[in-house]
């Protein structure tokens, strides 16, 4: 079984994207698709980015723990709302904090909005940033429009069958990419680098 980390990126009061992160966590566990850990950036309360972790003289323990959790994950799901056409500073902050930990890491993106466009503009900016730091963003996404009408505060999907169907495609693509990027795959007789 692969270990998946879900990053809930919003630290905003009354956030709704966190409900999507809870849903994805429950979906993976209930369907026995892997182990999963939810990293809530609101609980980390990272300071504004001043320097990458690798160059910090005295990094905080929470920062080191966060970096290790990202590094040890087989795959990552980033759940982000769209704010004014972009993603929140809290997510940009933590992406910039690390560097090598993101390289070649399979990442699935779930964008969320209160409107009809499901965070499509945030998706473009986030994909570009992740490509720039050599992460593997998967082709499938998990976009949620009108999030306030789709999930309750415990992460239960209000249109469960439709949401589960979309989650199935998204998670299968992530797990396929994880398998593809594992070292043992590259060291097999099929592909040699």
From TrEMBL:
Q: The organism sits in which domain of life?
A: Bacteria
The positions making up the signal sequence are none
* All residue ranges annotated as the NADPH-dependent FMN reductase-like domain in the record: 4-146
| PANTHER family with a match to the protein in the record | CHROMATE REDUCTASE (PTHR30543), NAD(P)H-DEPENDENT FMN REDUCTASE LOT6 (PTHR30543:SF21)
What is the protein named?
NAD(P)H-dependent oxidoreductase
Organism, per UniProt? Flavobacterium taihuense
């Amino acid at each position: 079984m692969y270990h998946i980390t879900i990053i809930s990126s919003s630290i905003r009061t009354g956030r709704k994207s966190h409900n999507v992160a809870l849903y994805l966590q429950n979906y993976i566990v209930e369907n026995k698709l892997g182990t999963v850990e939810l990293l809530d950036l609101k609980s980390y309360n990272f300071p504004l980015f001043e320097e990458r972790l690798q160059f910090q003289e005295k990094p905080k323990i929470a920062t080191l723990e966060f970096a290790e959790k990202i590094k040890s994950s087989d795959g990552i799901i980033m759940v982000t709302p769209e704010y004014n056409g972009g993603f929140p500073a809290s997510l940009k902050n933590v992406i910039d904090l690390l560097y090598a930990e993101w390289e070649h890491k399979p990442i699935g993106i779930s964008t969320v909005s209160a409107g009809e466009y499901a965070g499509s503009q945030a998706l473009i900016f986030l994909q570009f940033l992740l490509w720039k730091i050599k992460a593997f963003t998967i082709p499938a996404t998990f976009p949620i429009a009108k999030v306030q009408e789709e999930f309750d505060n415990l992460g239960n999907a209000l249109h469960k069958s439709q949401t589960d169907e979309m989650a199935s495609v998204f998670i299968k693509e992530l797990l396929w990419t994880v398998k593809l990027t594992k070292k043992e795959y590259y060291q097999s007789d099929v592909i040699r680098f």
